[in-house]
Amino acid sequence: MSKENENKVNEKEPKFTIEEVRKLIAEAVDEAVSEAMASVKTDSPVGINENRSSRRMTKRRDADDLVTIEIMPTREAKDDVVLSINDETCIIKRGKRVKIKRKFARMYENSRMQEISALQYMEQKQAESLAKLESAKL
């Protein structure tokens, strides 16, 4: 690509501030989490008058129901995802739709939610640190 064409491409690209990029990323993460939770979330068909043991049995049956999941590869993560619950193990190939037990999908979603919470916490602490540094400079 010539310098002239490269300059034209760069002129067309929008300029964003760090705060705008962070906001866009946060919105994208929130949307992805909502979509993922909607695809995994289920309502238990347990009636109000049922006893405790039948509710427990229904939850176990729901946990063993199959759901379809697809985990896309990223720059950082290209390996298959291995999930284990007690003595059961599930391997999910990235980039392919697979059917797995609902309990594994819930476990994966919970781990993703924890990861997102940790990232948000780190961003918050980083922003607080930057604010302290900037106020100290004044």
Explain the overall architecture.
The structure is a single chain. The protein has 138 residues and is of the alpha+beta class. The chain has one domain. Helix content is 59%, strand content 14%. The strands form two sheets. The chain has a two-stranded antiparallel ribbon. The protein has a two-stranded antiparallel sheet with strand order 2-3. It is elongated.
Protein traits:
alpha+beta, 4 helices, two-stranded antiparallel sheet, elongated, 138 residues, single chain
Q: Sketch the major β-sheet.
A: 2 strands, antiparallel
Mean pLDDT: 75
The helix-and-strand class reads alpha+beta
What percentage of amino acids are in beta strands?
A: 5-15%
Which ranges are low-confidence, i.e. pLDDT below 50, for 5 or more consecutive residues?
A: 41-50
Give the ordered list of helices and strands: HHHEEEEH
Shape call? elongated
- What is Rg? 22 Å
Task: Please report the total strand number as a whole number.
Answer: 4
- Strand order within the widest beta sheet: 1-4
Distance between the termini: 45 Å
What layout of secondary structure does this protein have?
Blueprint: H1 3-12, H2 18-40, H3 52-64, E1 66-70, E2 81-85, E3 88-92, E4 97-101, H4 102-137
Helix pairs in contact: 2-4
